[in-house]
Amino acid sequence: MTQETTEVTHLILKHDDDSSVEVPISDWSSMINEGPGENPKYALYAAGLYRPGSGEICAKHIAMSASSVLIHPYYHYPAIPDPGIKAAILEPEEKVIYTDDGQAKYLAACKDMNQCVVETFYKGLLEEKIDLKYYCVDPYGVKAMAIALQNNRNVTSIDFTDNFLNDDACFHLGEMLVTNVVMRELNLTGCRIGASGVKRLMANLPTNRSLRCLNLSKNKIGDEGAKYILDGFVRGLELPRLILRYNDLTGEGANYLTEALETYDRFTHLDLSWNKLSLIPYGTFHLLLQLSNCENLEDLNLSWNALCGPRIGSGIKAVMSAGKLKKLDISNNRFSDDAIDDIADGMWFAKKMVTLDVSYNPMSVNDALKIIGKMKFGRVKVQNLLMENIIVNSNFLQQLHHIKKIKKKVIITHGDVTESSKPSDPDMREIVLNRADFLTKKQKKVQADIALFAQQLVKEGRTKMNAKAFVEAVEASGLPLNDDLVNEIINAFPGPKSGKGKTIDVNHLVDFAKRKWPDRKLPPTPPPEIVEPVVEPEPEPEPKGKAAKGGKKKK
């Protein structure tokens, strides 16, 4: 029996080292199938007497079927699983879902925009109000804040007072209010946004239905900014409370607000103080006429506008007839004479007005009498009439006294009084001492006196007494004073406060009694008698050199 011999041929690929042509895979040396060679363990494995799983055989001698070779031909081990490269290239990124409070979103936005995190704002996202006044907020960091507030359901008010914001910040605040449905108040006082900032803020603000108060004080928006506010109301903005203090508004800006009122007349609070509405007064007059038709207007502030003249006065009279107007502030203007006549007549038509402030106007004494003269009628509903720095006379004070008797809860303030004959309240000290003196003189058997009694107490060093001790001292003195009168004396001359009850200052009582009855004084106390000590005479000394009587001389 012949055995067939198989020759093993070794192929060696030779190539030039300098060649830049890549060798085909079929010619790689690693693809040459070589046998395991002579190995005793492999022979035992072929005979079924050895298992490679025991760990005693080299891995390069383990056979592998062709169907299981799914690896790179250079290696004999399974391929490394894909770490996510294919998904990163072929599939879109997984969307990150943030919580509604916006804290995580704010941190992520600050990281992406390379902005510092404002800790007060971050913590405030869980509260109802965020206070960032005087915080020097970076205007470019407002974008991250706006992103965090888009879906926030906690914050209802945010205050940016005196943080200088730019147009970009105003734009993003307007974008935030498109999706935010819980924000009620936005305060931008002193942010210097100007007319351009108002334009960007109003770009998307009309779509918001939750905002109720917008404060744009001290922003120098001018009449141009009022025009952009008009555009916002024309496009459907609903804003019951609008504050436009310190914005250089003139009558032209008032005309824009008049047009806005033709579209939206549901203002409840409108603040136009510290502007220049006296310039181009006809525009201000038309604004006042239009405001008189606002059925929901409750608070109107027109102070510090240098308003004057009968034309503006008639406009004030018209606006006072607004159905729900409760407070009207026209202080620090220039109303007088004919304008005051119209304002006083307007008090008849103010159905629900509670406070009327006409302080610091150049009103005469007669002007003050015209206004207070309306207060005595029941038809006038004003309860707080503020007339600070308005000069009045005694006739005004008499009417004031009469009005306070008719209307118990009315509050009326005024300035100086021109006449010296001012009615004064009675002095209780005078009343109680006169009553005590009358009761004392009525009793002929009583020799005591209230003035002398008080002086005696001071003489004894009892200057500060509590009420109980004083009552006992009065009873011991025999004064015919009842308990009510004694209590009134204690109230008229109060002493230092004490936790044990009321006290009386007897020194004050004596001082007032001496001025009232200067002739009533205690009799002088005689000085104590000086008893001179008895001095016994000294014995006379015995004469020297003489012997005692009956004695003998010494030798």
TrEMBL record:
InterPro entries in alphabetical order: Leu-rich_rpt, LRR_dom_sf, RanGap
Annotated spans, Disordered: 515-555
Pfam family, one: LRR_1
Keywords: GTPase activation, Leucine-rich repeat, Repeat
Highest taxon, organism lineage: Eukaryota
Composition-biased stretches (Basic residues): 546-555
BP GO annotations: nucleocytoplasmic transport
SMART domains: LRR_RI
Name under which the protein is recorded: Uncharacterized protein C14orf166B
One GO CC annotation: cytosol
Transmembrane segment boundaries: none
Disulfide bond as UniProt keyword: no
GO molecular function: GTPase activator activity; small GTPase binding
